[in-house]
Amino acid sequence: MMFERFTKDARAVVEGAVLHSERTGAGTVAEEHMLLALLDREGSRGSFALAALGLAGRRDSVEHDLAEARRRGGLSRADAEALSGLGIDLSEIVSRVEEAHGEGALGSGSGAGAKSGDGRRTRRRPFAPEAKGVLAQSLRMAHARRDRHIGDEHLLMALTVRGGVATEVLADHGVTYESVTRVLYGDGGAAEAG
Q: Domain named Clp R: which ranges (predicted)?
């Protein structure tokens, strides 16, 4: 199993992501929960990279940007621009939905977690497909670097290349694949991003 290859720090990020998901009442663990769990870390390679790139002290800004994306139904600005190109005004749709159903109606706080067949909560919270993709991408990142284990730095690098909201929020704060690999390895991302 891939989780056995995770370092203590990477496991802590995954476990922290589950806790963030539970706290927000989300039905699944999403990429944004992984990003927040990375911001919680101290003394790890991933936290070093985030601090070196100036993100460690800007958690409020990251949380604000993630909340705005949730308000848009989890769509990135690139998604909104694509819809605009088709003549669909996402901000107008959000406004109308919120007018009818209340502010944040498109947010991802749907449900109180995974439930078993008999309706009881289960301990295991499912990972959204995008979050599963981050885990798989982190394995590819570690493999490309010839690292035996997957660290939280590989999770961070995976978040920077996957596309979507987490990648967009990181990039808006100056955290890109190139900047992370430059800080960690000094090579500007010479290994393939996948």
A: 3-194
Q: Tell me: the pLDDT tens digits for 139-172? A: 999 999 999 999 999 999 999 999 888 999 999 9
% of the chain with per-residue pLDDT over 70: 68
DSSP character string of 144-167: HTT-SSB-HHHHHHHHHHS-SHHH
The pLDDT score that the predictor gives to residue 117 is: 41
Structural domains of the chain, ranges and CATH numbers in brackets: 2-70+127-185 (1.10.1780.10)
